[in-house]
Design goal:
With 135 residues, this protein is an alpha/beta fold. It has 7 helices and 5 strands. The chain is 63% helix and 13% strand. Helix 5 packs across helix 6 and helix 6 packs across helix 7.
Length: 135
Amino acid sequence: MSELAIFDTSVLIDQLRYDRHIVGIERLHQVIRYSSVVLAELWRGATNPAEQKILSGLAKRNQVLTPTENNWIESGQILALMQKDHGFEPNKLRDLHFDVLIALTARAHGALLVTSNGADFELIREYRDFPLEVW
């Protein structure tokens, strides 16, 4: 069992805006860490001061994990394989890129990745295995 957990952007958006995952969050036994990629995605969509204040607090209260140089290179290699195997258009590959980086960061730290976007992360697991829980 993983000692750490990283939430994907989808879970945090659902939680921050709709309080949708409070039960799941409370039952987690892992130590929560945040991905710098997820925080960047959240900041991109933070539309009001209240959301921005919450985001500022997340990074202050918890350790933030960042993709390494090797994670970035490997993400490009995985996306090239996906394009070859599935014929994805550039827009789909661009959409998947951050998810691949999040998955590789979780994998590098042995962290459980928690998402409500199961399809994309299950696809990524075809190329690199990592602990995953879909809510």
